[in-house]
Amino acid sequence: MAQLKNFPLPDVGEGLTEAEILNWRIGPGDAVELNQIIVEIETAKASVELPCPYAGTISELLAEPGQTVEVGTPILTIEPAGAESDEPAPDKPAEQGERSEQGGKIGEEGADGRIATLVGYGPRSTSAKRRPRKKDATAGQRGSGSGGVNGSTGQRPATNGTPVTSGAGTDSASTNGTAVNGSAPATSTPSASRQAEPAAVGGTGEAAGGGVPLAKPPVRKLAKDLGVELRSLHGSGSGGVITRQDVERAAAGGVTAATSEGSAAGTRSARDSAEREHRVPIKGVRKATAQAMVDSAFTAPHVTEFLTIDVTPMMEFRERLKKHPDFRDVKVTPLAIASKAMCLAAKRTPDVNAAWDGEAGEIVYKDYVHLGVAAATERGLVVPKVRDADGMSLRELAVALEELTSTAREGRTSPEAMTNGTITITNVGVFGVDTGTPILNPGESAILAFGAIREMPWVVDGQVVPRQVCQLALSFDHRVVDGQQGSRFLADVGALLSDPGMALTFQ
Asked: Could you tell me which residue ranges the Peripheral subunit-binding (PSBD) domain spans (predicted)?
């Protein structure tokens, strides 16, 4: 028959270990071409379309949409185009004690019992033989004679220092005063063994000799949420185990779970809350974001500083740019101007663009700025990077930001575009938020929150006048950035936004 090939899930990003199958573009029996898009997957960083590495016919899909698959796991099998049917070769007897040196084709079993692979020998097709297990010592000897574990005595030495004897085989071997580890001998009879085993008491769901109800952890949690007292229930499961149905019947009134009116009201409230809740699996972007934020918050000592500034000159400068011939076809946003101000200020305070390398015992100063821009998407928070933002003009930076944010919202950002950032800006102002305390991206030492621009009273030349006011918040890693350096960087950004002409004084 034709040889089938497996297509394992590839690693589409740095350090990714799994991905979720979003949807298949093909089905079993479909003919596909080389590099044809066959499946869309979602990793912890982005949604990615995978091409087929072979041309041929799809044989079977090994993963369902919505399923999370680890990297390296086959997700489909394909019959390559032009594959020839291989007739099974007749078996050739080999001389006793002689090993065949000839291997089979790739994927076929060779004469030595191994499956030929591209590299190495591959596994044998036959499973390894195991030594047969000894009979259970407590099962006893079903008769007399030498059928027992230790011959005619039917005794099996215990490994914890206590010999265990089987049913009818109790004789002098059990009273010889010695054991494997030298402890006192002990005898066991079928009746004694049965008495030592735990048993349910009258099907009440309680263990023998105690008042702990027998129930699995999920059932216990359900009972706690619904306010059901497990000790008042009679388990209907095997051995008196309390089941989920027992708890639900009790909560519905089949069994009285509480005696007071207050307890009954609490039960109804818990039941109503559970019915109005739903759970969503933690995966994809949300899982990656959560892990990154936890790693950052509990690794880098965060410090956050705030600055309120009058950005009226910046807004007037933006209006003038709209009429400039070079900017008529470009959308220059306040975020673009703030991003340019960050790049200029980072040159004067390079510490905010550095990174802490604890393993090497070094601080890595970077002579380039890969500016991360936090973008809210339907899939969650993503932070794509503008590469070498410090070398861009304001117009180039505005174009790059517009393309980057639109691509992120469409879910088309590649994993490579979200790695190796040096500093980040997050525009919380688009949500009408004045400021916040942003958390650093792992591997970076500073992040700037750009707040909403509002018309507020401001003192100018001793007079209170309405002005365009904005708040900035800078969080930085105090291992790398001292208070003086962080304050200078934030003040420089504020000065550039308050008066864009100050950029002429920056070197």
From this structure: 214-251
Which pLDDT tens digits describe the chain residue by residue (507 residues)? 568 889 998 887 656 788 888 889 999 999 999 889 999 888 776 778 899 988 999 999 999 988 888 888 999 999 888 765 444 444 444 444 444 444 444 445 555 555 444 444 444 444 444 445 544 444 444 444 444 334 434 444 444 444 444 443 444 333 343 333 434 444 444 444 444 344 333 344 444 344 677 887 778 878 888 888 888 888 888 778 898 888 888 888 754 444 445 555 656 666 667 777 878 888 777 777 787 778 777 788 999 999 999 999 999 999 999 999 999 899 999 999 999 999 999 999 999 999 999 889 999 999 999 999 998 887 778 899 999 999 999 999 999 999 998 898 888 888 888 889 999 999 999 999 999 999 999 899 999 999 999 999 999 999 999 999 999 999 999 999 999 999 999 999 999 999 999 999 986
DSSP string, 88-136: PPPP----TT-------STTSB-TTSBBP-SSS---BSSPPP-PPPPPP
At the fourth CATH level, the homologous superfamily of domain 300-505 is: Chloramphenicol acetyltransferase-like domain (3.30.559.10)
- CATH code: domain 217-249 is 4.10.320.10
137 CA to centre of own chain: 45
Residue 217 is inside which H or E element, if any? helix 217-226
Considering the four listed CATH numbers 1.10.10.10, 2.40.50.100, 2.60.40.1640, 3.40.50.970, the one that applies to the domain covering 5-80 is: 2.40.50.100
**What single-letter DSSP state applies at residue 361?**
T
278 flagged as catalytic: no
Among the listed residues 234, 278, 370, 478, the single catalytic one is: 478
